[in-house]
Design a protein that fits this description.
450 residues, mainly beta, elongated, ten-stranded antiparallel sheet, disordered N terminus, 2 domains, 14% helix, seven-stranded antiparallel sheet
Length: 450
């Protein structure tokens, strides 16, 4: 612990800095100029333990598909359930001919070996249709929703396939029998009258990969295309007009990215002094902040004073980086979120900021550290305990996890991170834990009293 005294000059500086009151402090009144401000600094080691995540709830705007095995973090298996948005109110003109149909998806990247073949299968969904606001975990059981008696298409591809004109787009041609199911209902056109009507007619598609263990596709969009034509007669000739009717898997209907880690427990061998985070829906870390001990130390150092938390930083250090050819990349952003909030979180959105009281994020810096600013969160905890006239809880349990930020525009080209969502792309980091003998995870707190 370090302690020192400042005189009237420091008090004046604090007074000026305190004019902005957007961060809650413990004690905000200013004492007479003759009083002295006492500063102190302490460091507290943190307890950590690894959490194996069985499932998450997401509203994905991109998907993983495939299978990838990593010697350290185990295997990741990803599949897709997708409803398709019907063109509500659409009416086929008379005399149309249904030519063909195809399920099309495009992927903007892949992770792993692009030259490793993978077989992709598409099935029709069954059972009760998804509801848009329903909660569907990433561990969803395919047997409840996928009709394996109705395979729609199958194809073997290479992620890095340069033989097609557009190597990122895959077409799955559907059978003539399937095409006939979508013939125009010229009497009432009930199929396209509402989403509910369409989902009762066609509930969606389930996509998996049952061959290949070396690649995951990052899929951007999925759609069902119907190709039809009709004839137009003029005074001089008859023309055939070809059209495409698309049924996209967009944000107006529901999709679920099924994600499993089938051999994670067998593969992950925790090393002493290390902890882990990995996405998607794989491994997080519980971090216990000793709030009660911090409060007691502050009271012993500067008793009977109004306390201001000046800084409260946790620096998380990366250890044992994976630089292999197909090594999993470090997550660019990490989040610390209260475990109670994490446990009750049922949707994708997680409010967060650099100095939030529920969830705090940090960006990986050039030294490969995540530095979290917890001064506001710590100040709030101590302030609430003081108001209740009781000691704080023994520890504040936080969950460390990779996350994907969502930005909101502030003004002009300036943007802030407004909230976060579960990270779906592959990422992983090995972090020095609170028990690390070289550089244990710790929180450094600087505080002052007057």
């Amino acid at each position: 612990m370090r302690r020192f005294l400042l005189g009237v000059f420091a008090l004046s500086v604090l007074f000026l800095a305190s004019c902005k009151n957007d961060v809650p402090d413990i004690g905000s009144s200013i004492q007479p100029g003759s009083d002295l401000i006492e500063f102190a600094a302490d460091t507290f080691h943190l307890a950590t333990d690894t959490m194996l995540i069985n499932s998450i709830y997401t509203l994905p705007d991109s998907f993983l598909l495939g299978y990838f095995h990593n010697e350290k973090y185990g295997s990741t298996q990803a599949e897709i359930f997708a409803q398709l948005k019907a063109p509500i109110g659409f009416v086929f003109r008379k005399g149309v001919k249904m030519d063909s149909a195809a399920i099309v998806f495009s992927y903007y990247s892949w992770f792993g070996d692009g030259n490793s073949p993978m077989r992709i299968n598409i099935y029709e969904m069954k059972g009760k249709p998804f509801t848009f606001s329903g909660l569907y975990p990433s561990s969803i059981d395919p047997s409840e929703y996928a009709d394996f008696t109705k395979p729609l298409a199958s194809q073997v591809i290479l992620p890095k396939d340069t033989m097609r004109g557009d190597s990122t787009q895959v077409f799955f041609k559907l059978s003539k029998e399937f095409v006939q199911r979508f013939l125009p209902d010229t009497a009432k056109n009930t199929t396209y009258a509402s989403d509910a009507n369409f989902f009762n007619f066609f509930k969606g598609i389930y996509i998996n990969s049952d061959f290949g263990t070396s690649a995951l596709l990052a899929i951007r969009n999925i759609r069902l295309n119907y190709y039809y034509s009709y004839k137009v007669k003029t005074a001089d000739s008859t023309y055939t007009i070809s059209q495409v009717l698309s049924f996209p898997a967009n944000n107006e209907v529901r999709q679920v990215n099924r994600i499993l880690h089938p051999n994670r427990k067998e593969m992950l061998a925790p090393e002493a002094g290390l902890t882990y985070i990995s996405s998607p829906a794989n491994i997080f870390t519980r971090v216990r902040i000793p709030i009660e001990r911090i409060a007691a130390r502050i009271n012993d150092s500067i008793p009977n004073a109004n306390i201001v938390i000046n800084t409260a930083n946790i620096k998380m250090e990366i250890a044992n980086r994976d630089n292999s050819k197909y090594g999993i990349p470090l997550p660019r952003y990490a989040m610390l979120i209260r475990e109670k909030t994490f446990r009750s979180m049922q949707k994708n959105k997680i409010p967060t900021s650099l100095t939030d009281t529920t969830a705090v994020y940090a960006e990986l810096d050039s030294a490969k550290h995540y530095v979290f600013d917890l001064r506001r969160l710590l100040a709030t905890e101590l302030q609430l305990a003081k108001k209740k006239g009781q000691a704080p809880s023994q520890s504040l349990d936080m969950v460390l996890m990779p996350f994907t930020p969502v930005h909101s525009k502030v003004s002009g080209s300036r943007e802030n991170i407004a909230w976060g969502k579960h990270m779906i792309p592959m990422s992983a980091a090995t972090i020095r834990s609170g028990a690390n003998t070289e550089s244990p995870m710790r929180i450094k707190v600087v505080y002052s009293g007057f």
